[in-house]
Each structure stands twice: as C-alpha cells, then as structure tokens.
Design goal:
CATH superfamily: Ribokinase
Number of helices: 9
Order of helices and strands: EEEHEHEEEEHEHEHEEEHEEEHHHE
Number of strands: 17
Number of domains: 1
Radius of gyration: 19 Å
Helix content: 25-40%
Structural class: alpha/beta
CATH architecture: 3-Layer(aba) Sandwich
Distance between the termini: 35 Å
Length: 315
C-alpha cells in the first residue's frame, strides 16, 4: 500500500469557463463546468495512483464540514482515509480555467491553524500507519501552526522502518527535507522559481541545484524539476536527464505535477528501469495537461504518450 500525506488538504472548487472577464457576471451554461472535488497535492497524487491501479491510503489534517466532505469523497473513490480532525475547517481553493484565453487563475485559502496537541496526535497516527505501507509520499504546503521540522520527522520515521519516501513540497522546504534524505525530492516551484535563496529557472541551473541536493542529501537518489513541462530535468547519482514532450498542447496545468509524481511512483513500484520510469512519469503529466480535468481520466493514453517523450542523457 502507498500512503500519501497531505498536511494542508483542501476542497477544490474548479470553474471551467468559455471566457473569464473581470467585472462581469458569469453564469455557468452549457459547455461550461463547475466541479467540487477533494484537493491538496497528496490527495491529488492518491487519486491518480488509485486510478492507475495502486492501493492507496491518505492522511493529514481535516476539519469541519469540508473536512468530512473531503474524506467522504475519497472513500467513495476507494481511497482509505486516516485524517486527524481538528477544531478548524479544511480550506477551500478556487481555480478558474478560461478556455478562450488559455489562462488559469488560482485562489488558495490560507487553511486552518493546527495546535501542538493535534500535531502530536497526527505523528502518533502516522507512525501506526507505517507498518502496513511500502511507500510514503509527503506532498503539498504546511498549514499554520505546523513547523517545517515536521517534514524531517516524518521522513525519518518512515526511513527507519524501511519505507521509501518521496517528497513533493514547496521549494522553501527543500533544505529541511534534505536533512532526512528521502529517496526522491521534487521541489514545487510553480509560484516561486527560487531554491536555496536564489533564482533557479533554466536547465543548467536545475542540473546544478539537483547535484547540490544529492551532494548534501546522502540517501536521496533522484531529484526532479518538473514545473517546466517542456524541459523536465531529472538528476541522479549516475546521470542526468532532460525530458521533452513532442507536439505539446496544454489545456490545463492544474494537477500536472501531481500526475507526474503519481506516474513516477506507479512505474517505480512496478520495478521498471529508471529511464522508463522517467518517461512514464512525463507521459502521465502530459496526459493530464492535455485534458480539462486536474486528474488523469484515461490511463490508457499514458502508454500512447510515452512515445511522445524525448529523453536526453546528460553526463
């Protein structure tokens, strides 16, 4: 079983409009859509993994009516839930996809504040869950009241029990995660193209940053920079790789990174070679961005899209 950890989950309100115009009343009509779905990076990854055929459980903090809605929707999808409920309320995020102008506007709520007692109870819950899982995925932002050192603690607890740990969190937390050295680090750099206090936004800089992470994180085997879908960079201890999709037609970037990480985990869990894993992950991300939805709907397209992924080796 795979466990995803989403410390700051959400209910995602997704509006798909033919055209979004400021200062105008919009009425959703035929051809336009309104979706209310479970959200947060770990939750999204769990959804994609379940779609790919993996057995998945998910945990984190939840609260209020929206927290119960989150868990109910996940259980309907066949995903086990072990969320710690707090006195707060699970946040609601709003995304507006404009088809005509091909823009995505995201408004993320600040989320609930978590008490020290709830943090302690969550760590106890997480520790108990570890005995029945193989892979841990820690993904997304941190809610108020939760110190980034929790990431180190969660990684170390899993690693000591022989679990493989994958981390896909804000780039601000990368140095903290490096202290515990998870197997895979995927910095989330969508909103800030910065790492280690400096701008990182080009292939040469990605390669340099990835090598720096591996040098200072002894058990980490792979670092991936995925926010530039046209040039995904994967750095390993032996070689580095640049992956580029052919004939890219972006429809919606919402959920792309989560689809990529889920694709990586699924392929790796099947024991495939690293180059195949990287191609499959990129194909999963490609499949996601060429559809309106934030999760992969047709998994059969991934195998077709693998042929569209060019892989270049870099020494």
């Amino acid at each position: 079983m795979i466990l995803t950890v989403t410390l700051n989950p959400a209910i995602d309100k997704i509006l798909i409009l033919d055209e979004f115009v400021l200062h105008k009343l919009h009425r959703l009509e035929k051809g336009e859509m309104s979706l209310v779905v479970p959200g947060g990076k770990g939750v999204n990854i769990a959804h994609n993994l379940k779609k790919l055929g993996n057995t998945v459980a998910t945990t984190g903090f939840a609260g209020g009516h929206s927290g119960h809605l989150l868990c109910e929707r996940l259980r309907i999808e066949g995903i086990s839930t072990s969320f710690v409920f707090t006195n707060g309320v699970t946040r609601t995020n709003t995304s507006i996809l404009d088809r005509k102008n091909e823009t995505l506007t995201e408004i993320n709520d600040f989320g609930q504040e978590i008490s020290a007692e709830d943090v302690s109870f969550f760590i106890e819950t997480y520790d108990r869950l570890l005995h029945r899982i193989r892979i841990v995925v820690i993904a997304g932002s941190l809610p108020k009241g939760v110190d980034p050192t929790i990431l180190t603690e969660l990684i170390q607890l899993a690693s000591k029990k022989g679990k493989q740990v994958i981390v896909h969190t804000l780039s601000d937390y990368t140095e903290e995660c490096m202290k515990a050295s998870p197997y895979l680090i995927v910095p989330d750099m969508r909103s800030r193209h910065e790492l280690f206090g400096k701008k990182i936004d080009g292939i040469a800089q990605f390669l340099e940053a990835g090598r720096h992470i591996l040098m200072h994180s002894p058990h980490t085997q792979v670092v991936c920079f995925i926010h530039r879908i046209e040039n995904v960079v994967a750095v390993t201890r032996d070689k580095s790789y640049i992956l580029r999709p052919k004939d890219l037609k972006i429809v919606n970037m919402l959920g792309y990174g989560d689809a990529y990480v889920a694709g990586f985990i699924h392929a790796q869990d099947k024991g495939l070679p690293l180059k195949t894993i990287l191609r499959y992950a990129s194909a999963a991300g490609l499949t996601d961005v060429e559809d309106l939805y934030k999760e992969i709907r047709d998994i059969h397209l991934i195998d077709k899209n693998i042929k569209r992924i060019d892989l270049e080796e870099v020494e």
